From TrEMBL:
InterPro entries: Glutaredoxin, GRX_PICOT-like, Monothiol_GRX, Monothiol_GRX-rel, Thioredoxin-like_sf
UniProt keyword Signal, yes or no: no
Keyword set includes Iron-sulfur: yes
Organism expressing this protein natively: Thalassolituus marinus
Protein name: Glutaredoxin
All copies of domain Glutaredoxin, residue ranges: 16-80
Domain of life: Bacteria
Amino acid sequence: MDIMQVLKDQIESNAILLYMKGSPNQPMCGFSARTVQAVMECGQKFAYVDVLSNPEVRANLPTYANWPTFPQLWVNGELVGGCDIVTEMHAKGELKELLESAAPQE
């Protein structure tokens, strides 16, 4: 499968998806650490992809997303943004609302 199709499938099949360096339990850069902390504080389950262990994703996602850096938070198929945007939204309470609206209802 083409990497662009893989990215599309990952983004479409996960309501809340974080592309990051490392994992939520062990982020491998400060930006990923701050972003994952903001997302986790909102209390919703989310999927993640470690771009360090997926070099093809790391190489192609910036083109697919038209966003040059990591982390990248995607909600309902839309790119929300990176660390600055996510942490700013979290500080304003907007991130929690967005993630709650995206989370699958139990």
